[in-house]
Write a structure and sequence with these properties.
six-stranded mixed β-sheet, single chain, Nucleotidyltransferase, domain 5, Actin, Chain A, domain 4, 10 helices, 24% strand, 291 residues
């Protein structure tokens, strides 16, 4: 088959593209437009000069996106050169990318932790029976570290430095007393300040609690009949922020559910978006497509 099948995750911090048979072929920061020009550039780079065989394209969208917004994304995708365009909600795409057989599951929770926030859902037989947006995303974690450093040390660091400290020192569980690692943070005005892992954990803790509350709400709103399946199947985490060390253990202890981080968590949504093109029945049932 000469026509390519492309899955695109238009994330806040990156655009990730999956091509069937090739895997992840592109990951780059998004442009400011968040619409047509980005899609034209991305699709053009994937299909190259050969424009005779236009691709089938599936895009992930936030679960709370409106019908008007869905239509606009579909039309922009077609104008960018797609033969057909489909949409899938991020939690469903994340579940597929994590290897979950969503059409047959009797109940599982999924949370995609992106840069701007988290999208969580309980999925039963291919449908999201509950859904919520939780604001505890990767960028807020970074900013919390920036604010904590300013408050404790009187030193300004930028968000990228906050992200570096998160990656180097951040953990969802508190470090053992007296064994916290230390890193040097570069001040925006020059110079350095020593930051330890206990400080970083303290900065992240309120947002982790916010994440717990959001997940408790999503899981609590599921039909009572789904509870045994959730207790058995638990919660799957995807997205870049899901890679915070000990997050699975932290959430498992608080939610009293089995929690796992999906393999290649950062690419789950893009991968699932592309794989969904092999099973369009669910997408067509929701009528979120143009051919």
């Amino acid at each position: 088959m000469l026509s390519k099948k492309i899955g695109i995750d238009l994330g806040t911090s990156s655009v990730t593209v999956y091509v069937k048979g090739e895997g992840i072929v592109l990951r780059e920061p998004p442009a400011d437009d968040r619409a047509g020009p980005t899609l034209q550039r991305v699709i053009g780079r994937v299909i190259g000069r050969q424009r005779i065989f236009r691709p089938d394209v599936m895009l992930s969208v936030p679960g709370a996106v409106t019908g008007v917004e869905r239509r606009a994304v579909l039309e922009a995708t077609m104008q960018a050169g797609a033969k057909s365009a489909y949409l899938i909600e991020k939690p469903l795409a994340a579940a597929i990318g994590a290897g979950i057989a969503i059409a047959s599951t009797d109940g599982i929770a999924v949370c995609d932790l992106g840069a701007s926030g988290a999208e969580a859902a309980v999925i039963v037989q291919g449908e999201m029976v509950t859904f919520a947006v939780i604001r505890a995303g990767g960028e807020r974690l970074d900013q919390a570290i920036v604010q904590a450093v300013a408050a404790r040390h009187g030193v300004a660091i930028d968000r990228r430095e906050g992200e570096r400290l998160k990656l180097e020192l951040g953990r969802a569980l508190a470090p053992e007393r007296g064994r916290a690692r230390v890193a040097q943070a570069k001040a925006a005005g020059g110079g350095e300040v020593s930051i330890d892992a206990a400080e970083v954990h303290a900065a992240l803790a309120p947002l982790l609690e916010e994440l717990v509350r959001g997940l408790e709400e999503v899981i609590g709103l599921a039909p009572p009949a789904v509870a045994p399946a959730l207790a058995r199947n638990g919660l799957v985490l995807s997205g870049g922020a899901a890679q915070l060390p000990d997050l699975d253990r932290f959430l498992g202890g608080r939610l009293r559910l089995p929690v796992v981080v999906a393999r290649n968590a950062q690419a789950c949504v893009a991968t699932g978006t592309g794989l969904a093109l092999d099973n369009l029945q669910m997408i067509r049932r929701g009528q979120h497509y143009i051919t």
